[in-house]
Specification:
Elements: H1 9-17, H2 23-36, E1 43-46, H3 48-63, E2 74-78, H4 105-112, E3 116-121, H5 163-170, E4 176-181, H6 187-193, E5 196-199, E6 219-224, H7 227-237, E7 267-271, H8 281-296, E8 300-304, H9 312-327, H10 345-356, H11 359-372, H12 377-401, E9 404-408, H13 424-428, H14 435-440, E10 444-451, E11 457-464, H15 469-483
Parallel strand pairs: 2-3, 2-4, 7-8, 7-9
Antiparallel strand pairs: 1-3, 4-6, 5-6, 5-10, 9-11, 10-11
The structure holds glutamine.
Length: 493
């Protein structure tokens, strides 16, 4: 670990512009950190050669005065984004051997901005999970796990599904990483690993070239160590894409300019329904602390109601599996990755899908197929769609009384690998605070706000109006300054 690994993106850009160091030097420091961090199992594919080529090209662009928004900054890519000529697995055996002949729009945007690819990072299989324990390539270890590699008394989960992304950024292997969030997969791991992550408004970032989980919910976003870096990376990722019919044709504002620190007069909604049963006292305290910080900065806390919150998880766990069961029908042993032969076509399908999908993915396909089946469609899927509309209406009403909503990100700090694994419902409860905004398509951001009694990071979540990422970033900047966390994860301390 060198001083270069401790820089934020913003600081690294200043150093590059001042010629304090080159993109090649910055990249080498991160390639070395990726190798040192192998015990975390964050990277599925390391691409050091490609990183070096990209860094050399970046230095040349800077010398010509043509540096882009993120020129020379080494980042990690969640292995759910298709990367041309680089294996893409979605952490599933069924995509073994799949090398995409195309690049996702979001990653193409990042390379266009000059970012450098360090490799592809681990995730829950097809992004289904909250702890990165469903990956076919093994769990990721949270760099906040106490002790040292090899002598970890408890290996903690990094959260999920973007667990590799969060661990790589927290462990200073990458200045930032892409994540995807269907029901919390950027925000919850950002919370568990003490970093910042934003799920933008549905439609803000293109989904083209991202392996689909639940198409009406999936959204890409950045994960970084500071709010300013999240603003910068979102700037590079966002934008209209004619190749994604749900991408929204609306200009991308200057997110970096949003970080004014001025939140005077802003109304911050506090939804009583998020005080769920059994929420640890320290999370309530953190939430109250967040309210106090914002009030001190001139914002006005207001109570808001989100009455259908209690139905959000059940609704999500109908809608998301329904869409997943349909999206995952394409893995048939013919078109992508794994094929396990059989005596007939049907048997080949069965053998391939039986061998290729892990237990959680199979569970989702079963639930999804069930709720979409004749006779159950109205009772489950249609009902869930109606409740989803109600949840969106709750938010619309709340946003007449407030400008942004503040809640905790997750109901606990990171737990140990192996815990909550035999009871899927326990695992699903992790998403209780993140899922409602996903169902409503709204932007949500998690910012580190404190440490729990166990010394582990806790995040606060901000939820905003559609396409109002700027307010989330501005308020998050205020929380970040007030919290002023300087503790490093034990892995890099
Ligand atoms: N944990 C949630 C799930 O398993 C959300 C995952 C995600 O956002 N990709 O569905």
């Amino acid at each position: 670990m060198t001083a270069l690994n401790r820089l934020t993106m913003t600081e690294a850009l200043t150093g590059l512009d001042r010629r304090d160091f080159t993109a090649v030097e910055l990249t080498e420091a991160h390639i070395a950190a990726v190798a040192t961090a192998r015990p975390l199992n964050a990277f599925l594919v390391e691409t050091p050669e490609r990183a070096r080529e990209m860094a050399i090209a970046s230095d040349a662009r800077r010398a010509r005065g043509e540096a882009g928004l993120m020129d020379g900054l080494p980042i990690a890519i969640k292995d759910l984004f298709c990367t041309k000529d680089v294996a893409t697995t979605a952490a599933s055996k069924i995509l073994q051997g799949f090398v995409p002949p195309y690049e996702s729009t979001v990653t193409a945007n990042l390379w266009q901005a000059g970012a450098v690819m360090l490799g592809k990072v681990n995730l829950d299989e097809f992004a289904m999970g909250s702890a990165n324990v469903t990956s076919a390539y093994g769990p990721v270890v949270n760099p906040w796990s106490p002790g040292a590699p090899g002598a970890w008394p408890r290996r903690l989960v990094p959260g999920g599904s973007s667990g590799g992304s969060a661990a790589a950024v927290a462990a200073r292997c990458a200045l930032g990483a892409t994540g995807t969030d269907t029901g919390g997969s950027i925000r919850q791991p950002a919370g568990f690993c003490g970093i910042v992550g934003i799920k933008p408004t549905y439609g803000r970032c293109s989904r083209w070239g991202i392996v689909a989980f639940a198409s009406s919910l999936d959204q890409a976003g950045p994960m970084t160590r500071t709010v300013a870096d999240t603003a910068l990376m979102l700037q590079a990722m966002a934008g209209y894409d004619p190749k994604d019919s749900t991408s929204v044709n609306r200009s991308v504002p200057d997110y970096r300019a949003a970080l004014t620190g001025d939140i005077r007069g802003l109304r911050v909604g506090i939804p009583a329904e998020y005080r769920v049963d059994g929420m640890p006292a320290e999370i309530e305290r953190l939430w109250d602390q967040g309210v106090a910080w914002l009030r001190d900065a001139g914002a006005e806390p207001v109570a808001v109601r989100l009455p259908h919150t209690q139905y959000a998880l059940a609704t999500y766990y109908i809608v998301a599996p329904a869409e997943a069961s349909s999206n995952l029908a394409r893995y048939d042993g013919v078109r992508f990755g794994l094929r396990v032969d059989g005596d007939s076509l049907i048997e080949m399908y069965e053998n391939t899908r039986g061998a290729g999908f892990g237990a959680e993915v199979r569970r989702r396909i079963l639930i999804g197929t069930y709720v979409l089946s004749h006779g159950y469609y109205d009772a489950y899927y249609l009902k869930a769609q109606k409740v989803r509309t109600r949840i969106a209406e709750d938010f619309r009403a709340a946003f007449t009384a407030c400008d942004v909503i503040l809640t905790p990100t997750a109901p606990s700090t990171a737990f140990a690998i192996g815990e909550r694994m035999d009871d899927p419902i326990q695992m699903y409860l992790n998403d209780v605070f993140t899922v409602p905004a996903s169902l409503a398509g709204l932007p949500g951001l998690s910012v580190p706000a404190g440490l729990g009694a166990d010394g582990l990071p806790l995040g606060l979540q901000l939820i905003g109006r559609p396409f109002d990422e700027e307010t989330l970033l501005r308020v998050a900047g205020v929380i970040e300054s007030a919290a002023a966390i300087t503790t490093l994860p034990p892995f890099v301390a």
